[in-house]
Amino acid sequence: MSRVPIHRISLPTPFPVGAIHTYLILGERPTLVDAGVASDASWQALLAGLAEHGLAITDLERVVLTHGHVDHYGQAARIRGESGAEVWAHARTAPLVASYPWSTPPVVAANVDFFFQNGAPRDVAERVGEFLANAVDLQQGVTVDQAVEHGAELPLTEDHALTIFEVAGHYPGHIVLYDAESRELLGGDHLLDDGTTVPFLFLKDWDRGIRPRSLILFLQSLEHVARLDVERVLPGHGSFELSHRVWIERIRKHHARIQRRIRHHLEKGPATVHEVARRLYRGQLDVYTFLVFSEVVGNLDVLERDGDVESFLGDDGLTRYRVTSSEARATRVPMLRLDRDGRWSEGGEEITHLGTIEVLTRGLTRASDGEGYVVVSGAEQRAVEVEDAPHVVVRVEQVGDALELRLAGGLVEPLDPSTLRIGGENVVYARVRGGLMARFARAAYYQLVERVVEDEAHGFVLVMPDGTRHPLGEGEAETAT
User: Fold this and answer.
1) Both 55 and 198 in a single domain?
2) Residue 114 within a domain
3) Domain of 66?
4) DSSP 221-263
């Protein structure tokens, strides 16, 4: 257990998922994680829950939002107004909870159009729009006082803090809070033991052709969570009895099964999302339309990324999916790409989630046949198109008598000066992580050359902090090209 008490306060919601669990952290500044919907029943339950622990609403000093769904943020504005508490959320979440976009007419219309174009009958698509529009009564926009990023800390006492990690997929900017001492994880909706964790469709900008591939992001973020040493998960709904790593493996297998079923269905002929959902989920589709669509679209995204299926526009204007031909799979261009500046992208869309970038960077290695590069994640491998070197040095720092290289993706490696090479256009490279090449970005290059002097006998040499001198080799560095 944490040496800073954490107490669960459950608040009612009108949704099938049931009550939301908020968490009261009794550190030096009483903090509430998540806020519940804006309703009288939720407000009274919160007041009663605080009173059980000797607090009034005015005693709260911080409200931390794991994400921007209405059941997690809806009454944060009222709490802030009554108590003056600071509101913390991820920087991606902040603009979304300021004016909840899902319930605005343009976004409701975009969602209706998306469902209709993907095969839902017009009345079904309009019911989805009504569901989103009606959520406006369960929320108030709130200003975020502290916009945080992946890796930030939430101080609880002078010498104890929770670490905040962004976990993409369920909602843009979803965060979890991790206590390394007690090994507790406040998981929001990222880890739910009852199987209701769904990487939601997020269609705020769908009318401009922008749709995050939620399930792909979700599965990538699980890689980061799996590395945490967790003894107890505190979920946003229900209970959580499993080991988090066992749960993660079950989730992976669940989606792999769904993908096999979808592919089997598409082998019989092209189909819309709605037709696939009707085949796979039958009665559940009418009750949980948005959730089922999110599940099916997410798994189709994975299959399309892997080259197993492709989408196309039918003569009737509806989007359909079909199994990709063997010829097309054989000539498929790798979806993952790493450019010369260390930026990752997938399917032409830049990956900006820091946890995902770290997972990709850690898993990057040479392919077993020595040709090209792959990202290894468990038993899976994905090909990567690398433009120049597989790693990029973004900063050079002195640590004692040595130099450390900070790589794009958050990794740190000691500099082996004997591996330094000057390539074309005076670009500097060094070997890191099992002998892979790293290209020095401009800022790191200038930090390095501050330590370079010209020697009559050896040309340019690097002077290390301990005074040793190392000639800089010349010639082509071994890169992706």
Assistant:
1) yes
2) no
3) 6-99+139-236
4) HHHHHHTS--SEEEESSS---S-HHHHHHHHHHHHHHHHHHHH
State the Cα–Cα distance between residues 269 and 470, nearest whole angstrom.
64
168 and 37 within one domain: yes
Q: What is the pLDDT of residues 40-71, one digit of tens each?
A: 999 999 999 999 999 999 999 999 999 999 99
Tokens of 91: 């920087």
Domain co-membership, 189 together with 257? no
Residues 362 and 408 in one domain: no
pTM: 0.75
DSSP string, 5-40: -EEEEEE--SSTT-PEEEEEE-SSS-EEE----SSH
**DSSP secondary structure, 153-210, as one string:** EEEEETTEEEEEEE--SSSTT-EEEEETTTTEEEEETT--TTTT-------TTGGGT-
Residues 6+ apart with CB under 8 A from 406: 393, 394, 395, 396, 397, 412, 444
**Tell me: the pLDDT tens digits for 371-404?**
678 888 766 677 888 888 989 999 999 999 889 9
Domain count, the chain: 4
